[in-house]
Amino acid sequence: MPKFAPEYILAALPEHQVSPLPATRPVRVTDALSIGGREVVVAAGPCSIEGYDMLLASAHHVDAAGASLLRGGAFKPRTSPYAFQGLGEEGLEIMAQVRECSGIPIVTEALDTRQVEHIAQIADMVQVGARNMQNFPLLAELGRCGRPVLLKRGASARISELLLAAEYIMANGNDRVVLCERGIRTFETITRNTLDISAIPVLKRETHLPVLVDPSHSGGRADLVLPLALAAIAAGADGLIVEVHPNPPTALSDADQQLTFDEFDDLMVQIAHIATACNRTIKRPEPASRGSIPAMECAPQFDRRRTVPGKAAVA
Amino acid sequence: MPKFAPEYILAALPEHQVSPLPATRPVRVTDALSIGGREVVVAAGPCSIEGYDMLLASAHHVDAAGASLLRGGAFKPRTSPYAFQGLGEEGLEIMAQVRECSGIPIVTEALDTRQVEHIAQIADMVQVGARNMQNFPLLAELGRCGRPVLLKRGASARISELLLAAEYIMANGNDRVVLCERGIRTFETITRNTLDISAIPVLKRETHLPVLVDPSHSGGRADLVLPLALAAIAAGADGLIVEVHPNPPTALSDADQQLTFDEFDDLMVQIAHIATACNRTIKRPEPASRGSIPAMECAPQFDRRRTVPGKAAVA
Amino acid sequence: MPKFAPEYILAALPEHQVSPLPATRPVRVTDALSIGGREVVVAAGPCSIEGYDMLLASAHHVDAAGASLLRGGAFKPRTSPYAFQGLGEEGLEIMAQVRECSGIPIVTEALDTRQVEHIAQIADMVQVGARNMQNFPLLAELGRCGRPVLLKRGASARISELLLAAEYIMANGNDRVVLCERGIRTFETITRNTLDISAIPVLKRETHLPVLVDPSHSGGRADLVLPLALAAIAAGADGLIVEVHPNPPTALSDADQQLTFDEFDDLMVQIAHIATACNRTIKRPEPASRGSIPAMECAPQFDRRRTVPGKAAVA
Amino acid sequence: MPKFAPEYILAALPEHQVSPLPATRPVRVTDALSIGGREVVVAAGPCSIEGYDMLLASAHHVDAAGASLLRGGAFKPRTSPYAFQGLGEEGLEIMAQVRECSGIPIVTEALDTRQVEHIAQIADMVQVGARNMQNFPLLAELGRCGRPVLLKRGASARISELLLAAEYIMANGNDRVVLCERGIRTFETITRNTLDISAIPVLKRETHLPVLVDPSHSGGRADLVLPLALAAIAAGADGLIVEVHPNPPTALSDADQQLTFDEFDDLMVQIAHIATACNRTIKRPEPASRGSIPAMECAPQFDRRRTVPGKAAVA
After folding, report:
1. Is A199's pLDDT higher than 80?
2. How close, in Å, is residue A181 to chain C by CA atoms?
3. What mean pLDDT is predicted for residues B274-302?
4. Residue B307 contacts residue B56 (beta carbons within 8 Å)
5. Chain D nearest C-alpha distance from A192 (Å)
6. Which helix (H) or strand (E) is B140 found in, with range?
7. Which sign, positive or negative, has the C-alpha torsion B125, B197, B257, B309?
8. Binning pLDDT at 50, 70 and 90, where does residue C284 land?
9. pTM as predicted
């Protein structure tokens, strides 16, 4: 502490302290999993569900590495209509089967009001993608779906707008909303988006809702996922949603930003150090709650090597 | 590690590893201080030099708390010509005297090519403000000034442009350049700027120059300085430049974003935890290198309570 | 022409001419109305359908002033769930009745895939709002709806993304797509959005689709509608979509940016001058194609003075 | 005018009229040239002064085509230190000689406070480039230079900041300030910048200062210069500053956005139509005020074919 403190300064020093962050109200996802407490929660998995084997492998891997949720898209909102649009209904079936085999809860995206009921029957948590943050009929439908919702911030949404989007879900009866910062669109072109790291402490002050960060879409580059993830935890995020793929260069979407299994393992180790420094821990999934069906015996009805719709399986 | 690993995945797994960050080449500021090594360096002090006492008090405080550099503006680039423009030459004299008394090295901003030579005689490091990042004659002059340069990124500069601005300094003979991310201008209005946290790892990959972060201007809010500082260290920054003021509500510039001494002490404690988690430490200034003149005996020629130019001293 | 022309310049002068704009392929809206030809088309009307009388009055007024399409929202995408959401189904009924009475074709927005079929039965043209530009299931549904589509650019969509959004509609079988520039989100706060005037000539080079401009949302200020409308026509837009309200200060949405009837009359006069200077004309609706039911006899089933849902009519 | 007007609307109609634009106070450049009156003023010429012949040819051409001011950079602010930086002092000498020969007044950019006095002796109008809009010492120096100043808006400057930058010049004694909108930085990448066309009417309401538009830098594409110029005049700009080059593909800077002489002739014809539609005219330079020295006899001291500094003249 400084020795020097003239009286005029001591006298003038105001009661000006950074107040402690207001308490976040945890959102229950499953009986064993809540988001928003002292434990940092990680959701991980491939951008798109490309087939049964790749999803099951991803599930087992991210589960073993410490993720609490499996992510994976069945319906993919792609900028071009000619890009891979996801496996759709087949993807949902794969997802359901993988959850049964692996026991890991699943979060997946809904794009259309007409899908919400069906997706909510299968997924443990329903995601609203950035492009749909102001798809108000979809938000209203999710307000009635009975599942927790992961609401991603639109790429050009102000924080005030994100909070009002959450309000659409809550005003329709569902207060299990988790917010997700995933990068905003700026003039910078060296990254896909610009992670708005300030959004984390700002949201912590403005709302009781938990906040996840998506370091994969934020930068759009695999080499940035780790530093952005570390920064997010340090800034107070309640968790991460990370894209992981068995073989990123072959991914049918977001090939540039998905981590390998090894990279993900490394990330889980490193964020644990930061969490400890912040007096938090990484949520460890409870093995007992997971499925016990031997993986190889699961889902015989699927062509297990199928990875691209309409194409023959890889030999 | 996952139990499940079908052959096709093992076979397909590429040599796709996040490579370690390339080495940063430390920049020497003084014989006792370099930026860019394993030690995290903190520069701190008031936005503007408002008087002798407030700067000396700030110097002693931030020094004792672990800062390695004192920041303070004598020439202030203000959006309005009717706002406080800094004490100018008098500010430089105060700065020189405070360094003599306190022993802490000083970084201050140059706005005009005509000032560079004089400022370089007094300051240990010369800062280029965000508004001058593409003031090319100024950059060229700083290339010839013989002092290390702290180059702040322009509020709407792409990273590629920041690197070329650094090139202007280096092409003129000065390779002691430290970059500084201080927030970019986006559509979000809840913060003054948007800290581009990704800039840290991106710059680490693109250049050997050290990277500081300014969490004060990034958010423009005192309550965001701490979380942004923690995130910056976690993302790999080589240090911080933080605004600290003996009494922020009375500050003549940037009143909303300056920390109190207590808040700064807390920040120094907390970033040390993050630095440890990242296998780094906070640079501890060496007391031996500091001045030994008793503070109260310093600089009797100054009206020590003066804080506003042209106004009577506070009673 | 200059007298001075040294040989080296004459010799060097390349074949470098601005090529003429490629032809736009007009989109048929009704038998009497196409967008994209030499005639500039104006759509006008209130932001929201607030009641029968106000819509009918607007229809008659904008028709008489030279508009070819009536705009008006029944389903309103509002940032807050607590703001007026439009009259919904009742709004559609009012719209249908007003078209029958006035004969002016109608464009209105669809928000939800489940609404498309019904709206397409009533409206002459279906609008996709900026927030839904990447609502891909909605675009796909509109590709099958049998009506021309007015596709508004998202507030942070790149032009390349707008064109791919149009592609979603066309890939599903509907090539009657009209694009609409309506302002993008930038750092500037003095206007609601920033009209990207360059988008007009860029789109004219990149696609054969017609381009309208919305000068109301672009600036978000009634006082900017006229100069932005003039600029849009001068830059080559195929028409405008303008918000006009019988009494803007009382409007239930977008009160700041709607024109009065008088202001709209003035706009129609002034754009005609610019159109003439550009060798175009303003589309004059053909009175013969319009309804002949005396206005006062129309739609006796409506409480004609109703303007706010759930509130008593104005006395 | 509409036949239909129910009483409730007539009664409710407010006194809500678009007020006429406030008067702009013209800024005198030379005795024969003012900017800001009913006459639209065009400045044109090459991005950089690359040699004597090319500047004289440009001067004669743009003069004959109806431009009132010649533009050309001697000191060029280039993003990279390794790009052509302008001919510097030699460029100023060329400029002075060309003005003597051609009689057309000249506007050129000052980058450094130390250059202002010298440039102000030669140029008729001194330009502040976008990168220097908040170079406050430069603005202050221009406030004392005795020449009218063309102040370009920074690429990420809010309009409020542009006005305060103008205030720096005026507060130092020079009220001959002309503002220039030249495009802002946004997320859109298909154009170099985004012309903020709304800035024209907004500035017309907020200030009495004249407003020019730079359609060359706004889009960064030669093919967009004409439509943006037409839009600017339609939106109320007091004039244009356009890049024109004898042979754009060989230009040492901004090759993509400079017009050929023929394209410029076409632009001058077309903007005259728009100006007429707006009840304005294009300023016609008065031939009597121009130099009468035969071009070929001018400036024998220059290597007239020199176009690149340090390189041999083109044979």
Report:
1. yes
2. 17
3. 67
4. no
5. 11
6. helix B136-143
7. positive
8. confident
9. 0.89
B121 touches chain C (CB under 8 A): no
Q: What is the ipTM of this complex?
A: 0.87
pLDDT band at D177 (very low <50, low <70, confident <90, very high): very high
First to last CA, chain C: 69
pLDDT digits (tens, 9 = 90+) for A276-302: 999 999 987 665 445 545 545 555 455
Q: Are strands B149-152 and B125-128 parallel, antiparallel or unpaired?
A: parallel
Residue length, chain D?
A: 315
DSSP for A156-183, please give it: T--HHHHHHHHHHHHHTT---EEEEE--
Distance in Å, alpha carbon of D9 to nearest chain B alpha carbon: 39
Question: Shortest CA distance to C188 belongs to which of C231, C220, C234, C225?
Answer: C220
**Cβ-defined contact of B189 to C189 (cutoff 8 Å):** yes
DSSP D110-140: --SGGGHHHHHHH-SEEEE-GGGTT-HHHHH
Instruction: Please report residues of D whose CB lies closer than 8 A to that of A189.
Output: 189
Supply the DSSP string of B100-131, one letter for each residue: HHH---EEEE--SGGGHHHHHHH-SEEEE-GG
Main-chain phi, psi angles of D305, to 5 degrees? -100, 0
Inter-chain CB proximity D81 and B134 less than 8 Å: no
What does each C-alpha distance from D115 to A123, D108, D122, D137, D142 come to in angstroms? 68, 12, 11, 12, 10
Phi, psi of C47 (to 5 degrees): -55, -60
pLDDT at A139 over 60: yes
Q: What is the distance between the alpha carbons of residues A232 and A244, in angstroms, rounded to a whole number?
A: 18
Structure tokens at D188: 């859109």
Report yes or no: D77 and D109 within 8 Å, Cβ to Cβ: yes
Q: A-chain residues within 8 Å CB-CB of B315?
A: none
Q: How many CB atoms lie within 10 A of CB A49?
A: 31
Confidence at residue B306, expressed as pLDDT on a 0 to 100 scale: 46
Percent of chain B with pLDDT over 90: 82
Give Cα separations from B40 to B211, B224, B238 (angstroms): 10, 20, 5
- CA gap B169, D91 in Å, rounded: 24
Is B189–C186 a contact, with Cβ atoms under 8 angstroms apart? Answer: no
Rounded to the nearest angstrom, the gap between the alpha carbon of residue A154 and the centroid of all alpha carbons in its chain is 14
CA distances from A206 to A22, B57, B189 (A): 9, 35, 14
Which token pair is B267?
């920040």
> Is residue B67 scored above 60 in pLDDT?
yes
* Residues of chain C numbered 2-31 and touching chain D (CB < 8 Å): 2-6, 8-9, 12-14, 16-19
